[in-house]
Structures are given as C-alpha cells and as structure tokens.
Amino acid sequence: MAKIVYIGAGSHQFARRLITDILYYPELRGNTITLMDIAKEPLDLITAFARKLVEQQKFSTRIESTTDRRKALEGANYVITTIRVGGQAAAQADRAVAEKYELKTGNIIGPIGVFDGAREIPVLLDICRDMEELCPDAWLINYTNPMAINTWAVNEYSKIKNVGLCHSVQHTATELAKYIGAPFEEISFWTAGINHMAWFLDFRWRGEDAYPILRERFKDPAVYSAPDAHWDGPDIVRAEVFKTFGYYVTECSTIMAEYVPYFRKRNRPELYDKYKLRRVESRAAATEQNNKDAELMQQIKENFQFPMSHSGEYVSIIIRAIEAGVPARINGNVKNTGLITNLPEDCCVEVPCLVDKEGITPCFVGDLPAQLAALNRTNISVQELAVRGIVEKDRTKMFQAMLLDPLSASLLTIDEIRQMTDEMFVAGAKYLQGYK
Amino acid sequence: MAKIVIIGAGSHIFAKNLITDIVSYPELRENTIALMDISKEPLDLITAFANKLVKQHGFGTKIESTTDRREALNGADYVIVTIQVGGGRQAGRDIAEKYGLANGWTGPASGIINGIRQIPVILDICRDMEELCPDAWLLEYANPLSTIIWAVNDYTKVKNIGLCHSVPHTAAQLAKYIGAPIDEVSYWVAGINHLSWFLEFKWNGKDAYPLLREKFKDPDVYSNPEAHWGGPDVVRGELFKTFGYFTTEASFINAYFLPYFRKRNRPDVLEQYKLETHNHPERHPKRDSELKKLTQAADKEFREQISGDYVFPITKSREYGARIIYSLETGVPARINGNVKNTGLITNLMQGSCVEVPCLVDREGIHPCYVGELPPQVAALNEANLHAQGLVMRGIVEKDKNKIFQASLLDPLTAAILTIDETKQMVNELFEAEAKYLKGYK
C-alpha cells in the first residue's frame, strides 16, 4: 500500500482534480492519501471533499489530513507539491513593480518568475531535506511554478528523485487536434524543449505528418485569431511562431509572448492589438476563490454526487504506471543529462519520459532544430542565473538573471533593469532576507 | 624554405603590416611571400612595397605576385586570407541603419550580408587548398570571422585558425587604464570573437581587476573621447561593472551584439553610451564617399613613399600572423588567442561552434587550450550570438533564405528592436540590394 502525500492541498480546485484522478484508477484505491497544508481552513475543506468522495464511492482509500509537514512526509512513497509561498499578495507586490516597466507577465519567467522562484525554492528545498530524512526513496512530483527554475534547483541541491509536471503539452495537443479537426485519440506527437516553450517536433494524425494540414488551415488567420481559438483567447503569437520557426509551441500565446522579444515593444500599443495580447489583469482572484470555496462547502453538505472522471493531468498516470507497472509516456521536466544535445547539460528540459515499475525514465531526444534551441537557450540563461542567485542569495546574480531575460533586455536599458531589480527587492523584502 | 601566401594582399594597410611583421623575424627572411589579389592595381602597389622593403634591408626574401589564386596556392605552407568580397560598398549597412540597427561589419544585418559575400569565396579557397596545398595552414583574418571559421571547420578539411587583434589591443588598453607597462600585465581570455572575456587580468602576477574597478569609479576614465581608439569606452565600462569581466574589441562594436545599448526611438540611450561619437570617418568610415576619400589619400601617400627615398622601418605590430609562422617554423612556443572549433574547450558554449581561446603554437602546430566553464552570465551573452551565427552559416552554405531570416530574428539586437514582420521586411530589402551575391538562394 502506497502513501501519497499532497503538500499544498489547500489549493483545492487543483487538488480536487488530482484526488479524483488518483481514485479514478481501481489499482490506486487501496492507498493512503495524506493531505497537508499550512492553512487549516482550506485543508479542512479539501479533506472533507476527499472523505466525501471516498465514502460516496465506497472506496477503501484512507484519507489523512495534517498541517504538520514532517508528519505527512513520514514514510511517503509519492509527494505531490503545489505550493504558492506568500500567496496572491506576494505575487501582486512583484506585479506592481514589473508593471511600471511594462513587464507585467505571468509567474513563470521574467522579473515576476525570477522573484516567485526566490519565494518557492527555499521552501521546496526544505521539503527535499525533510524527504531525504523521512522518505528518501519517495518520488517528488512537483507542480509548483516557476517550473524550470524550481526543478533545476531541486536537481542541483538535493538527492530526491523528482519530476516537474505541467499540463501544457496535453493541452496543446488537444488544441492542435481541434485545429485540424482530428479526434484526439487519432493524433500522436513527440514534444521536447523547456517548460512552456517545448516544441511539437512531430505531430501526426493516424501516423501521417499532420503539419501540412495545419499549415493549410492556418492560411486563414481567422482559424487562430478568433477569440475562442484557444482557452486563453486568440492564438496569434503561437501561430506566428509556428509560421516563422516551423514548429508549434506548447502553453499559450499570452505566455509565449513573454518568452521572446518579438511581440511586445516599448511605447508600441499597436502591437497589443495586432497580436491580440491579453493584458494580464489582476483578476479578482480572492473573490473568485471565496465563491468556489462556498460552492464546494455547499456541495459537500448537500451530498452532491461528485463525478469520477480523469482530467488528463499526469500525476495519477505516473503513480499508476509505477505501482501497477502499466507503461505510460508523459512529458516531464527533468535534468538534461545529454537528452537534448544542443541545450546545456544539467539545465531543466521538458522531454518525453517512459514511466513503469522502474520509475520515470527520460527519453533521449537529440538535437533540437537550431532555431528552436536558440529560443530555448535565451530563457535557460535566465533560469541558470536565477537558480544560482536564489540558492546563493546573491543580488548581483538576480540582477544578471533579469538582464538576460530577452523581453526585459529588449524593453529596458541596464540602468532601468537595475532600478527594477532594486524595487523588486524592496517589494519582496519579507521573502528576500539575507541576500548579499 | 616556406611559401607564405597572402590572399587579398591589395588591402594594403593590413598587408604592409603583415609583410613587415614577417620579415621582422630574422628566421623568416629566407622564405617566399606570394602576394595575390584579384585587382591588379592595388596588388602592384603592395608588391612594389614588398620588393622595396626587402631590397632596402638586404633580405633574401623572395617576393612573388599574381592575380591567379591557384598559382599562388600551389605548394603553399601558409595561406593568409584578408579578402573583402565586393570591396567597401555595403548596402547592408545603410539598410541596417534605416531599421535602427548598428551598421558595422560584423554586427546584425550588415554582418550577415558580409558573410553571404565572403563565405562562398573562402570555401572556394579551401577547395583549392585541399587540392594544391593540403598540408598548409589557413590563417584567416576576413570578417565575419566566427561565421567564416565555423563554415571552414564544418565544410572543409583545411587546418586553420581565425585571427583578430582584439585580444592584444584590449590588453594594451587595460594596461593603460591601470597605468601598467604592457609587458607587466598577463591575462587569460576566452569567449567568442569580438565578445571574449578577460577571465583573468593580472599585473605582475596579482589580480589587477580590483585596481581597474577602483579606477573606473571615475566614469571619465572610460567616457572621455580619448579613452580608446574607438572613442569613449562607455559600453565596455558598463559591461565590466554589470557582468564582472572586461570584454575585447571596442565599445561601438560590442554594442552590436547586445540588446542593451540601442533602443528604438531613444536617442537618449545612444547619448548615454556615447555611441554616436565613434562615427567620425577616419575611425569608422561608413559612407562610400568617405571610405573612397580615405583610401585615395592613403594610396597617394604610400605611392610617394615607395617611389621616393623613404626607408620603411622594420617594426612589429600586435597581429598574430607572423608570430604564429615564426613558432611553427622555429618551434619557439607562443601563446596566442585564436578562433577555433569548440571541441569541448569552453564547456558551456555550444559544441562545434567557433570560440576564441588561448592556443599554444609550436612546431607541432596550433593547439587550442582547455578553458572549462565561462561564468554563466557571460556565457549567456555569447550563446545568444552563437545561435544566430550557426543559423547564418547554415543558411549561407545551404543557400536557404529562411534560415537567414530566422538567424536575423535570433540576433539579440535585431530581436530587441524589430518585430517579426519588420525583420522579414529588412531581410527582403537586404536580399534585393545584394541580389548579385544571392544567386541560387531558395
């Protein structure tokens, strides 16, 4: 019987999905799921949900719940992490600074990503230390962003077996199938690169190259420019990247525009219109969260019949493949041990992995097409300096990481980036103690 | 007796130094120097100079002169290449400038066009060498150096090295900044051409960076117009303070390779880095007419010296060419910085690319030294340029316009300033302007 620990289970929309996914597989119903969060209220809510689900379905799954991380980790076989240190407030403080410099972005790359990493990495490494002591053979399955920076730090500074997961490969595959009008089960793909900027090196429909069809469809810009082209809105940036560099990229257009310098230019608002870029708004996240909380509470109280379905997230697929020995292929974020030969050794790459009883084994990819490797490499440079800056608490390296961010470098001068870095240090002072 | 061939000897300011350098070594005076150029007039001029120099000093050097490349290469031991295909006229520079980019020989856009002109000819020279002098060393000086050397390494079997004077010049500059005699400083420099890093810089064996940092607290030291031969040295001063290491070449050239110093519609930034002041013609001729005027004046003076009773002095420049030949011929070891294939020399730069590293030269040949990892922040700056270079090189050899377009997109300065559409437009304009050199591109 395996013990599956979920750290940060209070992020309950995501936790609900993952818990349901795990219980979706009959082979995984006899295990223990230990839910852990530092905040008691959301933890109690998700615990109530999990117990309700197990009770409704009459599964023998044991649900544990604790705010004590070390207690949760004791004897664990799988440790899932979806933490967000400092919550919305800390992220918002960073955003306010970046916005002044026209650099408001997601929490993955650029100034906001680097400083988010500075909050997450110390905690993730603490979890790893605990794991080395309490469950040294367990798998760490990390969902926390900034994915590449976090995974790189874990690989470099701990001994824990781990994989970093994101859903951007599966989601993009679904969208590509939709673009060409193919049923999802009939397409196949081979995707590699870095998280949020991985490339569909192969994309097939019933075994045949489907890129010619996609190219044909994309001759009509309405296909990718429509407001409902993609869950995130118009998909113009990715289409443009596809037409220009020859391969489709994962994630979404809003995020891709943050990784490269082509789509946002200083004092050129016309580009926002041209690429229909969503201006990242500070969503009324808190209110939204409260509403969802109330809804879930109500459902539990009213004995709402929670459906058993699978979200497509990899974590349950991985646990099943390891536990039951049913081989699976997933795309995971792992250390580049010569897997992608034209990206730096030891950086964090997102590649296809085989999962079976032996564990998670990354597959060899070889050289990426030169133009794609080049785009990845610019961001890997940021990640490298950020990891070192964060772990060594070195302000200069953090500043240099910002300088290497392709979008920051294209929009700002060295002095302006220095100023922005200084302001980020002030805004996040609480989480940035001891930096020299 | 060795045969030293200079291809493109008509670039006579450079050739004059090189020839003088060679005969400055007593051990190299009994060789043959074969001068070759496709244009007869400048070739005759440099030949007259070489004959006069040898005669004046009573050396036994044999001077040959020909416009026939294959004849020159026959039986050569050293082939020095300093060609400029199409001469000084560079439509690419004006187009680059129109789009707000810098307009140098090796920078964005214009550097690409220069590669399009130069690489096919240099690969032709290599084909001839493989046939006529397969054991000869190619000493390659033509720009864009890195792209050319990368192509030579990937597509030919010729032993070669790419040479530039930016390392010794920068060393001299650094010595000047700290007030040290040049023979008391030492250094270890690696990276890529025109963006190599002084990983170590010492005065009498002691780290001299603290001293430089101290001097640079006064910005006037590097901002004044006389700071450097290229004008104010603000960009390099700033790079040093920001990334921790001093870089080779010159401020106005380093600014081509990075996105920080030129911004669209921001003359304040050009002003801050004093990037406009380098443009006075004798330092950096950018217009045809200026270039022509300068060349004519230099030609006239040179002609008068040759025909008159002027005695050409025997001096040594800082160029590596003659020093390399001397070490290979006599076995006296030398350390130079050369551009070579990255065969694991710099472990965190792209394998197979062209890197500039210290090399040992002796009778056995030119041996690149292992460098290891560059500090990650400077490796990152180099890598951004390497990716663009690699794609340019492939685009040129495969005659693939799309690769050249993608390479332009990957150039850090171009990407910072232009959108994808604007870059495409610029590449189209470059292709129109240079159609003559772009036959057969798909």
H-E string of chain B:
EHEHEHEHHEHEHEEEHHHHHHHEEEHHHH
Q: Name the average pLDDT of chain A.
A: 94
Q: How many runs of DSSP E, i.e. beta strands of chain A?
A: 13
Note the gap between the termini of chain A: 47 Å
CATH topology of the domain at 3-164 in chain A: Rossmann fold
CATH class descriptor of the domain at 3-164 in chain A: Alpha Beta
- The percent range for strand residues of chain B is 15-25%
Query: What is the approximate shape of chain A?
Result: globular
Largest sheet of chain A: 6 strands, parallel
Low-confidence stretches of chain B: 278-283
| Approximate helicity band of chain A | 40-55%
- The named CATH superfamily of the domain at 3-164 in chain A: NAD(P)-binding Rossmann-like Domain
Please report the distance between the alpha carbons of the first and last residues of chain B: 47 Å
Note the quaternary state here: heterodimer
Which strand order spans the largest sheet of chain B, edge to edge or round the barrel?
3-2-1-4-5-6
